Amino acid sequence: MFLLVQCLALTRHKRKPPTKHIEAPAEEVRGDVSLEGERQPPEVTQPPAGPLVVLVLSSSPRGGSTLLTDLLSAVQGSVVVFEPLWLIEKTKCFHDMACINRYLSDVLSCRFTSDFEDWLKSKNLFFHFFSPEARRCLLLGIPAKKQACLKAMDLRERCRSAPVVVVKVIRARLAWMMKFLEDPHLNLKVIHLTRDPRGSINSISRFGWNADPYLRCSDLQDDMQIYKKLRQVFPSTVTQVHYEQLCLRPLETTKDILSFLFGNATLPASIRDFVEQHMLNSKGNGGNMSTFKNSTAEFEAWRYKISEKWLKAIEAEPVCVQAIKGMKHTLFGSISAANDSKIPLILNT
User: What pLDDT, in 10s, does the model give residues 286-345?
Assistant: First the structure.
């Protein structure tokens, strides 16, 4: 067995002196994990009993994870656990890798605590995604009936009995997933979602969150590098989806995702309906969390909205340049070039 070295230090590599970017309280801590030495892919065995757990991990907020999660929630009978790390991100646990591992293990195994269930039911935006039953409860106009409906829902049992459990996270790093992918008792598949950092950072900046290009692109670049290593070891349980490709080729990319998850690329009617209504909707339906978009235009809409200040700041940051080049996207160099639709975002290679 080859050596796996997990560095539990929750500090990042030294960074350059801070730049004058918008600062706000960080949304997540960062853990560095390295994979050293060559590893052989594990032997193919029958998946363990229980639901298929699909973890959608986006390297950044505003990276398209809500869209992808909403798409996967259209799988018949699935449930969605939306941003479970939100509950602990401002606690001591979030600064302790062992504590994070225990917490995520409980979530991925449907071992919800009573406190977790109470929190999730109270977080309307998050709980809305859990299931159709959850949405029916939340729509009840009389508070007493709504509370009775929510109280009657046993989330642990709903989770354990579902064929698919989708877990969406933007507060984790891809390297944290190694121990869960190695767990023989967990039927886990991981989808790493990437988006051009200029698009995500432009959106983040409008929310007043920490939009520091160095920090955001470091997370993205770290995840992209770890993905290459994880993919070699876990080719059947780890994949990567590019937001831009999902938007440009929604039907084809969705087929690829379903093939990865289920070994069958056939689009169920519910999935096809979602794509046509949410992603190929020419009119769209505004709102920051809305997934009703004309995705073929939406994926690069940031090019015509980003300020010159932010474009220059991001493209001047070396780690952002690394990530953008790694995605085979164009470095524009000026706001006029970014606004020029004749210059393609995605390079043909």
Answer: 555 455 567 777 889 999 999 999 999 999 999 999 999 999 999 999 999 999 999 999
Closest of 222, 194, 253 to residue 58, by C-alpha? 194
- Give the strand pairing for 79-82 and 188-194: unpaired
For 110-179, give the secondary structure using H, E and C.
Answer: CCCCHHHHHHHHHCHHHHCCCCHHHHHHHCCCCHHHHHHHHHHCCHHHHHHHCCEEEEEECCCCHHHHHH
* 58 closest CA partner among 234, 196, 155: 196
pTM over 0.90: no
Residues 6 or more apart whose CB falls under 8 angstroms from that of 202 comprise 302, 305, 306, 310
Q: Which H or E run includes 298?
A: helix 295-298
CB 267 within 8 A of CB 274: no
Closest CA to 216 of 202, 242, 197, 244: 197
pLDDT, tens digit, 9 for 90 and up, residues 191-227: 999 999 999 999 999 988 999 999 999 999 999 999 9
Q: How far is CA 46 from the centre of its chain?
A: 27
Helix 308-315 crosses helix 197-207 at what angle (to 10 degrees)?
130
Predicted local distance difference test score (pLDDT) of residue 102:
97
Give the C-alpha separation, 121 to 141, whole Å: 16
Q: What is the pLDDT of residue 133?
A: 97
> Residue 278: what pLDDT?
86
- Per-residue DSSP letters for 14-56? P-PSPPS------S---------S--PPPPP-PPPSSPEEEEE
Sign of torsion, CA 104 110 111 116? positive
Amino acid at 131: S
